[in-house]
Amino acid sequence: MWLVSLHLSLMNKISATILAYNEEKHIGACLESLRGVADEIIVVDSGSTDHTVEICEKFGCRVSTRKFDGFGAQRQYATSLTTHQYILSIDADELLSPALQESIKKLKEDGFGHRVYSISRLNFYCGIPVRRCGWYPDRQIRLFDKRYANWNLRDVSETVIFRDSVRPEFIDGDILHHRCDTREQYERVVASHAAMKAKVLSVRDENIGVVSPFIHGLKAFWHSFVREGGIFEGKVGREISMQSYRSELLAYATARKLKAVTGQSKDNRK
After folding, report:
1. Cys-Cys with 93: which of 13, 26, 50, 199 at CB 3.0–4.6 Å?
2. What CATH number does residue 28 fall under?
3. Is there a single domain that holds both residue 195 and residue 162?
4. Is residue 175 located within the same domain as residue 213?
């Protein structure tokens, strides 16, 4: 009987994985929110030059340093380091709301009845919670049984993939995501993500015309500002929607340039 109890207790343990890079401002709150929830915390750091690693080590985390080569690859690597069956994937600038903490604790007590769990994410822009612009509920697959699911290898916009027979279960509570502390910081994040998306777009077998970047940018703005109600978020909604426009414009414009360079290289080799 005690062997059965031991087996069940091990099955209900959670390994939390965190991606980090120069996150000394936020990672302490992230780790604090995992107390009583995670039985193991794996941090994959991309070469932080601040006190991120020191903070993680004080919390008893296992820290592994790995050069960043895309979000999907980083998350897969983090999962490979875990020892428990269920994975809770979170970023250093995210934390679990009290309601989400209680929901996960109850799952651990009662036993996991599903292989994959969907969680709402509440995003903050310069400290302000945003419930429109497509930023909420922003449901994410972040808790899963690694035997049945794992991250894909996309550099950006990565997702958890799982078998068709597996159905995600929604759980109460939010992941609280501090997207940026300043507008300038968010602009840098947008530019970085746009550059990664451009690489993906540049290898697709599709033509990107002269006006395509503007069309995709306008579509993104319309979706955020009008369809997703950004207009009702005031100044914050306008700024987020304009950054959505900028993100798509940059991604497609850069991809078009990359395609042109690749095409010239191929012609030169002929």
Report:
1. 26
2. 3.90.550.10
3. no
4. no
User: How many domains does one find in the chain?
Assistant: 2
Total-model pTM: 0.90
pLDDT by residue, tens only, the chain of 270 residues: 444 444 445 579 999 999 999 999 999 999 999 999 999 999 999 999 999 999 999 999 999 999 999 999 999 999 999 999 999 999 999 999 999 999 999 999 999 999 999 999 999 999 999 999 999 999 999 999 999 999 999 988 999 999 888 999 999 999 999 999 999 999 999 999 999 999 999 999 989 999 999 999 999 999 999 999 999 999 999 999 999 999 999 999 999 999 998 765 555 555
Domain boundary among 180, 211, 243: 180
User: What's the chain's Rg over C-alpha atoms?
Assistant: 20
- 13: burial class by Cβ within 10 Å (0-12, 13-18, 19+)? middle
What is the C-alpha to C-alpha distance for residues 144 and 112, in angstroms, rounded to an integer? 10
**Is 68 buried (19+), middle (13-18) or exposed (0-12) by CB count in 10 A?**
middle
Q: Which domain holds residue 188?
A: 183-269
